[in-house]
Specification:
N-terminal domain of TfIIb, GMP Synthetase, Chain A, domain 3, 3-stranded mixed sheet, 6 strands, OsmC/Ohrsf, KH_dom-like_a/b
Amino acid sequence: MSIQQSDVLYTAVATAENGRDGRVATDDGVLDVVVNPPKAMGGSGAGTNPEQLFAAGYSACFQGALAVVARQEKADVSGSEVTAEVGIGKNDDGFGIIVKISATIPNVDPATAKELLEKAHQVCPYSKATRGNITVELAV
């Protein structure tokens, strides 16, 4: 199900110059970073890269989804951490990404933590946007 323009609550705007070997900045100036390919891909690794930025956004978004699900389930996720590992590699039609979402949730048992992660994966906007397009592994 898609949202309509009238339902948009916020729009982020970022502009890239020179792709993977340049800079990216948001229209409000809050983010302005040099981007370079990582050394593993032949770059200098001197700046951040799109995969790191995607991992940062996905982990933050997923943590928010986890909090929403936890409130609904009356579970305590205080002190939890969500880590997103984003890999890039060649696939049949160029390049693709793969993601591993790991969470540490100290106040619930492992089975509950796994259930919360699976539910968060259903409501997280990043998960919804990538569903069916990339492999996402969930780990507690």
